Amino acid sequence: MEIYDAKNINHSMWSNGNLSRQSAGKSGGSRSISCIAYSQDLDIIAYSGVQGKIFVLDQSTKYKIGQIEGHKQEVVMLRFFDKQRQLVSIAVNGQIGLWNAQKLSLIQF
Q1: I need a surface site. Which of 6, 40, 46, 70 has the fewest CB within 10 A?
Q2: What residues contact 50, with CB distance under 8 A and at least 6 apart?
Q3: Tens of pLDDT along 86-109?
Q4: Domain of 85: which CATH number?
């Protein structure tokens, strides 16, 4: 799987065996990815890390199309609901966010 750094437009190759969660205190810090999700209908990838930000990439071009900032702690789960065009996020503190996956806007916390 290719993972792109949204800030530096760098990428790295990860195998399934290396997709382990890292905490902010370990190597990588704010660059650690904690979860990833793919929407087949929208053809977008969402990923998040220990800073609580969610980055959204266009799958075909691999360019960042947006960023969601709402969580204050590490996001540990992302899931798209394609029929509703929604993205659900859950942070380590239990906070759940429901997002419009097309507009990248908050529906409800």
Answers
A1: 40
A2: 22, 23, 24, 29, 30, 32, 34, 74
A3: 999 999 999 999 999 999 999 998
A4: 2.130.10.10
Number of domains in the chain: 1
What is the rounded distance in angstroms from the CA atom of residue 91 to the CA atom of residue 38?
A: 18
Q: Measuring CA to CA, which residue among 17, 9, 6 is closest to residue 48?
A: 6
Domain residue limits at 87: 2-108
